[in-house]
Design goal:
This protein is of the alpha/beta class. It folds into two domains: about 5-200, Peroxisomal Thiolase, Chain A, domain 1, CATH 3.40.47; about 210-360, Thiolase/Chalcone synthase (Peroxisomal Thiolase, Chain A, domain 1, 3-Layer(aba) Sandwich), CATH 3.40.47. The protein has eleven helices and 14 strands. The chain has helices at about 15-25, 40, 55-65, 90-95, 110-115, 130-145, 160-165, 230-240, 260-275, 285-290, 295-310, and strands at about 5-10, 15, 30, 45, 75-80, 120-125, 150-155, 190-200, 210-220, 250-255, 280-285, 330, 345-350, 355-360. The protein is globular, with a radius of gyration of 19 Å.
Length: about 375
Amino acid sequence: MALLAQIVVRTCLGDGESTFRRMMAGAVGARPLDGIDADLVNVGAGYQITGTPAPSATELLLQCLAPMAEHSEGSRPVVIGTGLREVRPIERWAVGEGAVDAGCLDFGKDVTAKLPDLWPVTTISNACSASGHALAIAQDMVDSGEAAAVVAAGVDVVAASMLAMIGRVSQTRTARVRPFDTDRTGVLLGDGAAAALVVADDWTGPVVGRLLATGLSCDAFHETAPSEDGIVRAMRDAHRRGGRAAADVDLIVAHGTGTALNDPVELGAIAEVFGTADAGPLVAAGKGAVGHTSGAAALVSLDLAARTLTGDVPAIAGLVRPIAEATGIRLVRSPLRDATVNLVQVNAFGFGGVNAVTLLERIAS
């Protein structure tokens, strides 16, 4: 069974350690957009990483992948999940600014040029669950014996074209993401990248936790609307593959987009699988703090999940008045210390009904 040996993250709140520490303190990374005309896209805020110029998707990805090449014996395969790939050069080219290399749509050339020990590189585009699917592929490669160690990664950055798609379908501008809150007004994008080193169970180095399974579903229910049935199938697939019952899960790191459709559907699926008893799992979510990091979201949530195995669980940023569907579900509304967290479920859902649900288990010392 595969193990999680290492995970490296970049968000608007910093690296993984800084992001978690600031989440525990209640930090929210939303701020006015840099470099994008808010009136043009009808979005005024985002969860961007600071920098002049703004870091590209490739730059963020390489920051996370560099530690994965250390101490490798031979090449390590890499599977990268993304929603938009390296979209900013395409946007500039579309308005007549500069040329574009079609190779930027696949991160392989840039990764192997900078980090030759990371090879072969495969890029997949599975919307907002992309890095969850990359993780599933990495687990399969390790569990089947195809490779002793595989890197799963994910990346996306705030892009004008995606912002316009979000902003032009809403009359009210969203100021921040508020998962499961009655007064939520929609999603906001965030810059993010992550890389996870998945290894076989004979690994002798440090280990973060045991990757029991990643359950998948592709329900094709609707172009953008989620399907509760499809999400339920992914959850139950993870439990079946991992050999664990729903009652074994201590904490769920929810997808939690703060949108009109996702929030009630996700909570409905949780209620169907886990029930609404007081003894059910805690439910946390990170997007209120770091925004929706799209293709990186599943692994950003996995990093959050891994850090909760110490017993610290951050509150859901932006949650004030839970929606009706939250009745009987243990949403984390205040930061917790010394919680019992041995098994965490990570939810990631994407447009088109591509769903990935991962189980991460603490390894007893």
